[in-house]
Structures are given as structure tokens and as C-alpha cells.
Amino acid sequence: MADTKIRIAIIGGGLTGATLANALFHVSGLDVHVYESAPTFSERGASVALSSNALHALKRVIPASTELLARAGAVPINSSRAILGSGPQAGTLIVEMGGGVESGVGVHRAALLRELLAPLPPSLLHANKKLTSLTQDNVGDGEVEVSFEDGTVKRFDAVIGADGIFSSVRNYVLGDEAARHAPSPAGWWDCRVLVPFEKAKATIGEQYFDMPRQNAWMGDGGFILHDVLDGGKTVQCAICCVEKEPPKERKRPLTLEMLNEALSGWLDGPIAKAAIELMVDQPNLHGYSQWEQKSTPTYANGRVCIVGDAAHATTPWQGAGAGQAFEDAVILGHLMSNLSSDPSDSTRPVDKIAAAFQAFDAVRRPRCQRVIDSSRDTGVLTCGQDPDAGLNPDKMRAAFGGRWTFIFGLDLDEYKQDAMGKMHEFLGR
Ligand SMILES: Cc1cc2nc3c(=O)[nH]c(=O)nc-3n(C[C@H](O)[C@H](O)[C@H](O)COP(=O)(O)OP(=O)(O)OC[C@H]3O[C@@H](n4cnc5c(N)ncnc54)[C@H](O)[C@@H]3O)c2cc1C
């Protein structure tokens, strides 16, 4: 176990911050505090699909993760079907995944966050604490000084930014490069609704609810998804569409006419009218542009680093964002557990933090960037925009084959060893 005196501030209490706090507190034995700008630790009302790599990573952080997910009402996704949703071949099955190594779960984000926070002592969780600035310059003993909107100033041995896609810590880490690598619109917008299971079944059709599965409809300029969560009580339905022009703002009001127009090529098919009916039944219907971190030159700057969406926000097309955040927690937790000096080592554990963060950057950035790029390409294919595949089911099927293998097939033990090897390199050993 690492020196328990190492003090870490995690900025941001979303799924990444909460998972990382568990890793650093329970696995690495560090003195961790989480600072969240919102008045309470909370999540958007939507689901998140956790694939097998995400589940494996979560288990490394929280050994009782199966029970944790059960308390959050997670529903196993025994099958994930991609079906053509528009055009003359609408209804054609393109691919079915699930079972074995590909099994995942669907879970309500707010319930997952609640359960991820539960194993942490409340005294470590600080809401209403918005980071306004941080510095490593002229702070004693290599510490990092953080300032909050309420005027408080604190010092830590290291700071980790889990403050989401519009991260302030990212701006600090990237410095002069921040503007050039700012998050940008990815080319799609989406809207989501949670409805009672019986209502979804009656509207969409009983035949799609014969078992816990995710149905992903692909077609002309859009995508429709429905999956079950909350232990089978709720269904999430999502509609995603290609942006016709660059968005002026991330969030915009939506109407029935706008949805009908966006999915005009789908309306004779088996799913679009039902999905639109569910969507417009909710008050304050809004669409959100999808944004991503297209490139990032580094995740680390001295004793400050970034994780989760702050480092590698991706589009949702491969359902991989939260899984990448859990992998971050495993790798950073492992590196930070191995800072303790042995008796023959005169370097203090705190003086190895920068090397740990460099090692984290070296192993995580290539993989996360690959996920970002692959996810964007998957969106292009899904919405029938791939110039070769178009909406040809055979070509789409061929193009989808193997697309998830590199995400699911990670050997976490090997990966942890790679990270340790890098840390030793950076320490000059
Ligand atoms: C539409 C959509 C669908 C998705 N679907 C999936 C999926 O199916 N599967 C999957 O694996 N992933 C999915 N993802 C990705 C996944 O949700 C994210 O990768 C994951 O939630 C990581 O979030 P985070 O904690 O890094 O960031 P966030 O959830 O954005 O949390 C950041 C936190 O930091 C706080 N904060 C911000 N600034 C400050 C500050 N200055 N001071 C203090 N606190 C601050 C915020 O209030 C927030 O609570 C999806 C994402 C989107 C947008």
C-alpha cells in the first residue's frame, strides 16, 4: 500500500470521479477528496451501457461490483441487435452481439453514481465546490494549490481532473495547446426519454421485449436505440441524427415536426413513428449535440492529470465512454498503489507522482484515442453515411465485424504491467 499521507484532490464527482475515488481510497489507500461543483452529486436521467471490459475494470476497483450493479437495478444485455430501420430493407437484422465475452449491462446513470459513491466516507465528498484555478508554480514542496469559487484555497500532493468534457483541469494541463485541442461537435445530436416498461412495449411492439436486449436501429441519417433498465421497470429510448449544419449551441428545443423531418426517410419503417411518439410525450423535449475530444497531446502536467471525459470524451456509438473511465481508475489506482519506497529507495513516494501520471498518459492515451476515432467511424457507418457500405446490409455487416474486439479484448493484468514498466522508465530505472 502506498504512503497514506499522499493527499489527492479529484475535481468532479461524475461516474469517473466516483470510480477513481474508490480506486485511490480503497485500492491505493490514499487520502482522497472529491470536489463537485453542483449542489449535489447527481447524474443525467438516462442509461449507460457497460460492456464486458467496463465490468471487468469495475470489478478490479470494487470487488463487490456485481452486488453494486444489482442495487443500481442493472439489467443484463443478453443480446444487442443492430437492425436496419429505414429504406426498402427496413427490419433486416444486420448483426447480433451478446453472450459470453460480449455480455454487458444497462444501468440508470443516477442509480450507478449513487452506488459508486456509497462505499466512500461522506467526509471525502464535497459538493458545491467549483474549481476556479490551480497552480503548481511557487507552491511549497511540489504541491498543487487549488482555488474554489467560494474563496477557499487548498493544497494537495496531486490533483486529478475528472471534470467532464469542458474540463478546467484539462485547460491547465494543456496550457497554450488547450484552444487547439478544445472539444468540438462530432456531427450528430441526440435526444432520450425514459418510459415505463409496459408503455414502451405497447408503443414499440411486444416482439422487441421478449428478453433483456438492446435494439439498435440504423438507417438514413439517424439511429434509434431502446434498452431496458431499472431491473426491468424502465425503457430508455434514444434518437440520434446527423447534424445538417454545425450547431450553434449544445442544447436545443425539439418539436414533433423537427423529429419527423430528421427521420423523414424512416417513417414507413417499423420503428421511427413509435420512437417519435415516445419522445414527444415528454415535457421540455430537447436535443443535445454530441461533442468529443478529437485529439489531446497529453493527459499529464507534473502532478496534475486528467481522466474520463476531461481527457477522452467520445461519441456514444460504441458505448465505450464509461468503460474507458473505469479503465483509467484501474491503471491510475495501480500506479498510485506502487509509489511507496522500499528501504533502498531514497525517492519519496510524492516525488514519483509525476512519473506515475506520465506512465498513465503513455498507456492510456493511445487506447482512448483509438476508441474516440473508432466510435466516430461507427457513427458514420450506423447512420448510413459510409461511402462504401451505405445502407447495404451485407456491407454494413462486414464493416461492423470485429469493430468491438479491441475494446472488449483488453488484458488488464498485462496493461497494468505495461503501465508499471513505463513508470519505471520515467523514474529512470
Ligand atoms: C449521450 C451519451 C450517451 C452515452 N452512452 C454511454 C454508454 O452507453 N456507455 C458508456 O460506456 N459510455 C457512454 N457515454 C459516456 C459516459 O457517459 C461518460 O464517458 C461518463 O459518464 C464519464 O463521465 P465523467 O465523470 O468523466 O464526466 P461528467 O459526467 O461530465 O462529470 C463531470 C463532473 O465534474 C463536475 N465539474 C465540472 N466542472 C467542475 C469544476 N470546475 N469544479 C468541480 N466540479 C466540476 C460536473 O458537475 C460533473 O459532475 C455516453 C455519453 C453521452 C453524452
Automatic annotation (TrEMBL):
It comes from the Eukaryota. Keywords: FAD, Flavoprotein, Oxidoreductase. Residues 7-336 form the FAD-binding domain. Pfam families: FAD_binding_3. One of its GO terms (biological process) is secondary metabolite biosynthetic process. GO terms for molecular function: FAD binding; oxidoreductase activity. Belongs to the paxM FAD-dependent monooxygenase family. PANTHER family: FAD-BINDING DOMAIN-CONTAINING PROTEIN-RELATED, HYDROXYLASE, PUTATIVE (AFU_ORTHOLOGUE AFUA_3G01460)-RELATED. This is Salicylate hydroxylase. It comes from Podospora appendiculata.
